[in-house]
């Protein structure tokens, strides 16, 4: 039996590095995991006034997460934090209060950047936001992927040899993390 994992690539850009990393992770996943890659596209803005009758897109997103066995966030860094669309998706999924769709779900965090710091501030932002609304966050290995600008070919395939073992080690560790918390 494979665990169903939702991978949220935190950018809306069609050719985003986060989406490419998420897709590469899905290809490297062991057979114990089935990864479904998605982006926050189509999730309307969170507004607490709508909680009594949530929009259909909120309900669909929450249901996808509730049916999953874990979540991996793959995020770029915008202005030393996560993109607003990713924060909005988290806000939508974490409500109503006390009924977060992330509750009990093992979580992984991967940040990335074409620059030298690998989006570490974005990862730290997620590490600040998620406790209290999610399940256990995998602590190690940490993944702050730098210099990803030349890591993929025109079709989005991972071509940077130095990145493959990093992603493989991460997804293998995440598989063990999920099994531990569902075992």
Automatic annotation (TrEMBL):
- Give the matching InterPro entries: Flavoprotein-like_sf, FMN_Rdtase-like_dom, NAD(P)H-dep_reductase
NADPH-dependent FMN reductase-like domain boundaries: 4-145
Alphabetized GO MF terms:
FMN binding; oxidoreductase activity
What GO cellular component entries does it have? cytosol
An example Pfam family from this entry, by short name, is FMN_red
Question: What is the name of the protein in this document?
Answer: ACP phosphodiesterase
Native species of this protein?
Answer: Bradyrhizobium betae
């Amino acid at each position: 039996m494979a665990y169903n994992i939702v991978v949220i690539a935190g950018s809306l850009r069609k050719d985003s590095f986060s989406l490419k990393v998420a897709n590469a992770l899905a290809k490297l996943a062991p057979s114990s995991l089935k990864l479904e890659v998605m982006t926050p596209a189509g999730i309307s803005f969170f507004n607490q006034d709508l909680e009594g009758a949530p929009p259909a897109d909120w309900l669909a997103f929450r249901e996808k997460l509730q049916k999953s066995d874990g979540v991996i966030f793959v995020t770029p860094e915008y202005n030393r934090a996560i993109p607003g669309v990713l924060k909005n998706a988290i806000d939508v999924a974490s409500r109503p209060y006390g009924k977060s769709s992330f509750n009990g779900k093992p979580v992984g965090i991967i940040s990335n950047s074409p620059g030298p710091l690998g989006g570490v501030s974005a990862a730290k932002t997620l590490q600040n936001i998620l406790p209290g609304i999610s399940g256990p966050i995998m602590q190690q290995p940490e993944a702050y992927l730098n210099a990803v600008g030349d890591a993929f070919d025109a079709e989005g395939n991972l071509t940077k040899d130095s990145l493959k073992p990093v992603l493989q080690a991460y997804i293998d560790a995440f598989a063990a993390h999920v099994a531990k918390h569902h075992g």
